[in-house]
Fold each of these.
Amino acid sequence: MGKRGMQTRIGVIAELALGAAAGAISRLLTTPVSVVTTRRQTQNGTTNSGVVRDILRTYGVAGFWRGFPASLVLTVNPAITYGLYAWVQGRATLSPEQAFLVGAATKAAATIVTYPYIMAKVRMQWRAPQDLSLPGDSSRSITYSSAGDVLQKVLQTEGVRGLYAGLEAQLLKAVLCQGILFVSKDWFESVWRSALKFPKH
């Protein structure tokens, strides 16, 4: 492996590591907001204060971080996206159209890999439904104790297809947002460098 190839490989690894670390810190700080938001979106006639009281009463303070382990796994999503994009960008100068396509493709790959945990995080943060029961045992409501528990029960009740329920909509949103983001990023970077006459590395 040549010197340039080694530098590129180290650069990609650094992108992945920094992306994952930044994502973990962000998830730690924003998970309580995500939990409350999810409850508000899935429960009728509730208020923010009512949701907060319900979480505290049912789970205690730790309830505001339900789904956090799954969120940690999801930090690899942007890390994969930016790492792959940086790897491609280090090998070729991308036109706006190519930047959009590469950004969309890398985000699609990351989303497909991590989608079961996206689903698990949402189900952990959603108030456990009391009207759903496991097949053959109507006396047991489906409740979740961890992301792994979500995945196991979804496989049991819905099969492999259940792990990817809603993937199409998530992919559409993700690839459009990420493609536009990378095109905008490259355009602003180009304008910035031209304005300040910075050499492009």
Note: Confidence is low (pLDDT under 50) at residues 1-7, 128-134, 136-140.
Amino acid sequence: MRAETAVTSASVLLPRTGEPARGVYRISTIDAHPHFQCSAITAQEYDRLADEAMDKLVTFFEDLGDGMDIDAFDVEYSQGVMTLILGDVGTYVVNKQPPNRQIWISSPISGPERFDFSVDRNAWVCRKTSDTLGKLLERELRDALAMADLAVPIK
């Protein structure tokens, strides 16, 4: 497992007053999520797996948009970057990161996350939360679009 960096608040007292310092942080190294270990995949495996996931997502969201009445709904895909515009809900950006062999997401609900492929789980998995890319999208979009039966086609 690779180590990650964590930023936590530190209890530091100011020398002159003995008062607690505000905005002081300690940076430490911690292990990645204990339930997930990043799989070593080749660049060719990454390309195949990432392209497959992105193709499934683009097709799914294009079909979803055809059956929904959302103002400003749009799906665009170019050069490994999918932009999903959901009107008032906001804009999702899901993109391939070949140098890191990851898929990154920027969510209007949960913010940015990075996903590595887990061969054991056959899914793109977030190291911080052990959540999969598919489950994150499903959870957020079920709530945002009020669609309890929404099923994203990737794990």
Note: Confidence is low (pLDDT under 50) at residues 1-14, 23-34.
Amino acid sequence: MSDRDSTEEQPQGQGADLVMEDSGSEPELRSQEEEGDMRGDVQELATKTLHIQSKKYYLDVKQNRRGRFLKIAEVPGRGPKKRLTLRMPAAAELRDYLTDFSEHYAQLGPANPDNIKEDGRIKSEQIISDNRRYYLDLKENNRGRFLKISQTGDRGPRIQIAVPAQGLVEFKNALTELLDEFGTDDPSDESQTPLPKSSQFWVENKHFFFDVGSNYRGTYMRISEVQPRTQYRTSITIPEKAWSRFRDTFTDYCSKMDELKIAHQNGGPSSPSVPEGDEASGSVDHGDHGDHRELEEEGGSATASQEAD
């Protein structure tokens, strides 16, 4: 099971609901932007309402002290409202992918319930924006075709919405109108130093993610390990001021490990010297814990956290 699929939805056919699983209770689904709404420091710039089959969708462009963003809310015929948020550049990527998905859907023939893949996936894409990832999956089952949009981030549960495939063009057109009016650039980026892109890699059966982000407290790197079977994520956040110390300490241990291997192969001593400044046990100095906590997102976790992704 991949990082994008921790649960499975049950879409239905024309004129019925696309039933999605709960991604958490209403308080758990509140993003930082929504918390800003509650504090009254978010300005609503525009909104569009869509009715697709028996569902209602709200597309809202808002602005807070960190810049403009798009909030998408899905109101199903039954069940809780689901919301996800994107910065304007990510919303522009979503618009472009919606174009691709709608064109691909238009070229598909009639659905064959007897010839559906086990995971139902037809086409997939991914958007990475700061420390958030958005998975776009055009899927089908014996009840119909739909686009599933999943948002994951540093904290909180996975957020998912589903759009019936018949409504992709209408959804894309509404998003395009908002982007044409308010632009695809984030004004807050103009005064910020560009950040490196996120990266990830596998080591045996372990999946590691490296995400660089920033807030009004500074720049930080989040290193996460995702268990492929359970989809639990364990993360640490490192403030930029400590990066060089982590690099030097890690490089030093790599050198010491190489010395150990060579000494072992040659039948020499088996214990290397401990890196200067470290304890005899080889532990890394944790003097920057206070800086670390200050860099966490508001309402975020402590130094290390384990969460269901």
Note: The first strand starts at residue 43 and ends at 52.
